[in-house]
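ugh ok fine here u go
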Amino acid sequence: DALNKAVAGAVASKRRKEPLHVFVQVNSSGEESKHGVLPEDALDLVRHIRGKCPHLRCDGLMTIGALDYSPNPVCFDRMITCRASVAEGLGVAPESLELSMGMSADFENAIRIGSTSVRVGSTIFGARNKPANGGSAA
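structure:
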């Protein structure tokens, strides 16, 4: 609810008429260093956003999976299953939900397996420099 209130304020300040498009981040690897909901909790969060957050439009799911260069990365397979489960719970076709998985190092496998969106910034711009103070590199 705090996120919904913050987004509502930001939307109002920009006089935005359309909802902000968002993806629910799923922790497909189970790694503590990664954020996001567990795959089994994704449906509840998507339902919450769709039912209680009028300034947000949940377009799909995203993940930053564990590095896995095998032909069938487990995290990507897990996201295909998660999207199917969320779609079934919502009563929509899986293809109606975007699936963002894959980054510069593994985007080819992600696309082959079913990703509809990839993030390839470091391929284009190079790796980000991490600040010495441990803060964000915004």
